[in-house]
Amino acid sequence: MNDSKSDANNTEWTSAVGAALLITLLLSLALISAGSWNWFKGFIESAAPAWIQAIGSVAAIVAASVIARHQVHAARRLELRKQAYVEVQKLKIVLALMVRALNRPGFSRHLGASNLRPNRRCHDSEATLP
Q1: Which helix (DSSP H) or strand (DSSP E) does residue 114 occupy?
Q2: Which residues contact 127 (CB under 8 A, 6 or more apart)?
Q3: Taking a C-beta distance cutoff of 8 angstroms, is the pair 92, 105 a contact?
Q4: Cα distance between residue 40 and residue 71, in whole Å
């Protein structure tokens, strides 16, 4: 359905964000180890913890919303499966009742249908209902 498409989009999105974060981390480590960018080193020592906390908070909020959305879709799919199972069980019961009715002695005679073949047991005097 549409859920598989949204799951694929979520997977692509999270992979892209993860790759961007990894590249940023590796670039930062390269700049620190080179030691030639003093302003970057000053930024890392003073403002970086606040930025890391802010980015982590936003990421946690996004992750919580993605998880909640996934759970809602999973609950909907489960409910639809349960409803489909119940409907199939009802149809099986109706089918069994129809088969039982068709196998009753004298069924075609009671309907008055000339195109139905009469049951062999319909002419027995001792025939009983199942």
Answers
A1: none
A2: 105, 106, 121
A3: no
A4: 41
pLDDT in tens, 24-45: 878 877 776 766 666 666 776 7
Token pair listed for 113:
């249908």
Instruction: Report yes or no: 107 and 122 within 8 Å, Cβ to Cβ.
Output: yes
**Per-residue tokens: 130:** 């199942």
DSSP assignment string, 15-59: HHHHHHHHHHHHHHHHHHHH---HHHHHHHHHTHHHHHHHHHHHH
Tokens 């999105």 identify what position? Answer: 13
Residue 108 CA to residue 27 CA, distance in Å, equals 85
Of residues 110 and 76, the one with the higher pLDDT is 76
**Angle separating helix axes 2-34 and 38-46, nearest 10 degrees:** 120
> Do 65 and 92 contact (CB within 8 A), yes or no?
no
